[in-house]
């Protein structure tokens, strides 16, 4: 159907897959957004760790400082008490009295309680020290009391003796110990405070820096995240747009058209209006593409799209379905007349000359027209019928044709058959039989023709003549040919694997030759089954070449240049001019069985067959006769120097397994 190649290496921009660059960009975006997210988490984590660490360490230092300052205070109280005790002792000796003695006792109690507090909160070293002071204090207090008693008694000599021998040395020990410990702890306390202060000033300096740097990084990462999110969003939007629009013309594609078609039908049913669809296929577009190059082809398609949009109403949808195929959806078309008028207007618009880079170009176009209600009630039936109408318009050389149910008698049955055929292909209900071609001079099997059959679950075995013509009416023939090619080539592969090297001939329909995909499909299949091109022959009828001879010839030349043999099938019933035949890359000429079968009863046919054999040979082709049912025919053809024969006399079309047995049997003889 389409005349334009899908993605071809020298022309990737028109139909190729989205180029790789955006994919790389998308990948980079995803990576950078992932990094930004990780970075964000890392920074927040680092800030939290810093905050917790600084709180814990500062708290610990503060506690140390408090404890050490309390201890130092206790030692200081103890030291004070010791000093006061000494001065009270002196005072008692000068002016004794109960008041001084009471005060002295109080000071001793103060000293004891200060030492108790040190014992409680101090370290092991402090506790040992306190115990040491306590043990030294007991004899000292006893001596003091004795000295005080001596003072009370007025025994001055005894007082001096106790003071010199007992009190002073014992006191000195206590005083020194206490004052030294007090001084030490004072130093330690000051040091703790210093440490705490240093930590606090460190915190004061670094916290803002850490937080500011953290905030900056968080901002940076958040910004990266936001930006990549925005870009990814817009990429997503672009991808959505791309999935619904044709890249070359920017028009809605098949998917979007189908969606709008559904909507229009729904709305039409509610409002009682008709929905129209015009299916347009450009004629001779391939010629532009091939003779002037893809640039012109692309520009032409673009301009065709623009003209269609200009001519269509605002509410209509102009879509490009692929290749040189366009569709226009007419919501609320005014019946078939309205749709035909619209088609006429659009046809006039696009058949007026185009100008591309100073070159004037004319295109012809075939329009298939359908409207809801009259031609069908669902988008897929309407699409299919528009396609049938378009193909009929093309075949008959009419610019515009509405779908004609009359021309398509038993149409509902046929349409049902089309649906079943599609399913049959999906379920593998179609299979192949093979009919050998043999050389008349050597008896050698030169090839087999693959003939398709359909094992229908209800109708039973259906012959190709009953379904191929319907398949040819629509795009199904494309899938069918692909299916047959695949089966035939996989069979050849299997035979080659067991040592049977016989090429297969596959029948190709007229419509296949309008579809450039055919060439790519064949290349893929040969590669897939690892077969050389000379293992495949294509049988093409004369009428197929005549339908769109330019397109057909181009495709045939491509196939021929790859090394695939082409046979012209049913030769004699069509109207191929000898001039055309000469220009075609054909290696085999197959005389139609109607001439062969009638040969024996009709002198004229005999002459035709003889002349075709000569004609073929003069054009450098091998000639094969089909429909060779009897030994007489077989022998007669030998007499005319026909190269090969095919027919029931040699072998009927049979299954692959039966063919293998037949072939092995024949080889043995
Ligand atoms: P065709 O290409 O002309 O195929 C030859 C037809 O002649 C086959 O009919 C074959 O069974 C029949 N035939 C073979 N030897 C004799 C004989 O000695 N006498 C008579 N009277 N007939 C003989 P078949 O298999 O029914 O196919 C009919 C047509 O269907 C084919 O005609 C071909 O045009 C088409 N066809 C078959 N398979 C395919 C396919 O895979 N793709 C396409 N596009 N068309 C196919
Ligand atoms: Ca054939
Ligand atoms: Ca034939």
UniProtKB/TrEMBL annotation:
Residue ranges of every copy of the EAL domain listed in the record: 414-667
Keywords: Membrane, Transmembrane, Transmembrane helix
InterPro entries on file: Biofilm_reg_signaling, EAL_dom, EAL_sf, GGDEF_dom, Nucleotide_cyclase, Rev_trsase/Diguanyl_cyclase
SUPFAM superfamilies, per database record: EAL domain-like (SSF141868), Nucleotide cyclase (SSF55073)
Domain GGDEF as annotated: residue spans: 273-405
Pfam families per the UniProt record, alphabetical: EAL, GGDEF
Gene3D superfamilies: 3.30.70.270, EAL domain
SMART domains: EAL, GGDEF
Transmembrane segments: 35-56, 202-225
Name under which the protein is recorded: GGDEF-domain containing protein
Organism: Pseudomonas frederiksbergensis
Lineage: Bacteria, Pseudomonadati, Pseudomonadota, Gammaproteobacteria, Pseudomonadales
């Amino acid at each position: 159907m389409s005349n334009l190649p899908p993605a071809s290496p020298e022309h990737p921009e028109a139909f190729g897959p989205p180029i790789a660059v955006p994919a790389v960009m998308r990948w980079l975006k995803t990576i950078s957004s992932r990094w930004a997210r990780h970075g964000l988490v890392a920074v927040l984590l680092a800030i939290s760790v810093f905050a917790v660490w600084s709180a814990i360490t500062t708290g610990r230092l503060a506690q140390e400082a408090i404890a050490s300052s309390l201890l130092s205070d206790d030692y200081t109280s103890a030291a004070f008490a010791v000093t006061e005790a000494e001065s009270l002792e002196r005072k008692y000796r000068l002016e004794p009295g109960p008041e001084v003695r009471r005060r002295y006792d109080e000071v001793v109690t103060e000293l004891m309680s200060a030492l108790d507090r040190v014992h409680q909160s101090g370290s092991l070293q402090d506790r040992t020290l306190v115990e040491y002071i306590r043990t030294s204090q007991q004899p000292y207090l006893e001596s003091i009391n004795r000295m005080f008693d001596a003072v009370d008694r007025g025994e001055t000599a005894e007082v001096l003796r106790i003071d010199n021998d007992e009190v002073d040395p014992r006191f000195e020990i206590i005083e020194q110990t206490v004052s030294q410990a007090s001084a030490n702890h004072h130093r330690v306390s000051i040091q703790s405070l210093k440490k705490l202060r240093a930590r606090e000033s460190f915190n004061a300096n670094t916290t803002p820096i850490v937080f500011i740097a953290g905030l900056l990084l968080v901002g940076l990462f958040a910004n990266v995240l936001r930006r990549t999110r925005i870009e990814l969003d817009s990429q997503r939007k672009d991808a959505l747009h791309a999935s619904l629009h044709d890249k070359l013309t920017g028009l809605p594609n098949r998917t979007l058209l189908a969606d709008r078609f559904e909507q229009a039908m729904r709305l039409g049913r509610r409002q009682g209006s008709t929905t129209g669809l015009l299916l347009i296929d450009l004629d001779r577009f391939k010629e532009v593409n091939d003779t002037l190059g893809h640039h012109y082809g692309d520009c032409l398609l673009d301009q065709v799209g623009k003209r269609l949009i200009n001519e269509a109403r605002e509410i209509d949808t102009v879509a490009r379905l692929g290749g040189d195929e366009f569709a226009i959806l007419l919501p609320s078309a005014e019946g078939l007349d309205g749709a035909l008028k619209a088609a006429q207007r659009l046809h006039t618009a696009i058949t007026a000359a185009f100008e591309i880079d100073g070159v004037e170009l004319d295109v012809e176009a075939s329009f298939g027209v359908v409207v809801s209600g009259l031609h069908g009630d669902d988008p897929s039936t309407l699409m299919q019928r528009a396609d049938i109408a378009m193909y009929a318009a093309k075949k008959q050389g009419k610019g515009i044709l509405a779908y004609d149910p009359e021309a398509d008698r038993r149409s509902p049955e046929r349409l049902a058959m089309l649906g079943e055929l599609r399913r049959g292909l999906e379920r593998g209900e179609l299979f192949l039989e093979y009919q050998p071609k043999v050389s008349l001079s050597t008896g050698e099997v030169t090839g087999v023709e693959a003939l398709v059959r359909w094992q229908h679950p209800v109708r039973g075995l259906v012959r190709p003549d009953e379904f191929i013509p319907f398949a040819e009416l629509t795009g199904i023939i494309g899938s069918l040919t692909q299916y047959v090619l695949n089966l035939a080539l996989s069979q050849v592969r299997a035979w080659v694997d067991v040592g049977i090297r016989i090429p297969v001939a596959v029948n190709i329909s007229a419509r296949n030759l309008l579809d450039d995909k055919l060439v790519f499909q064949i290349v893929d299949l040969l590669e897939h089954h690892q077969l050389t091109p000379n293992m495949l022959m294509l049988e093409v009828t004369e009428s197929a070449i005549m339908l769109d001879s330019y397109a057909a010839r181009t495709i045939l030349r491509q196939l021929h240049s790859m090394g695939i043999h082409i046979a012209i099938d049913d030769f004699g019933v069509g109207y191929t001019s000898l001039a055309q035949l000469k220009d075609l890359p054909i290696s085999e000429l197959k005389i139609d069985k109607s001439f062969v079968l009638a040969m024996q009863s009709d002198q004229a046919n005999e002459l035709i067959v003889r002349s075709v054999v000569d004609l073929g040979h003069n054009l450098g082709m091998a000639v094969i006769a089909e429909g060779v049912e009897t030994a007489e025919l077989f022998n007669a053809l030998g007499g005319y120097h026909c190269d090969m024969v095919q027919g029931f006399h040699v072998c009927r079309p049979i299954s692959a397994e039966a063919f293998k047995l037949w072939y092995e049997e024949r080889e043995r003889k």
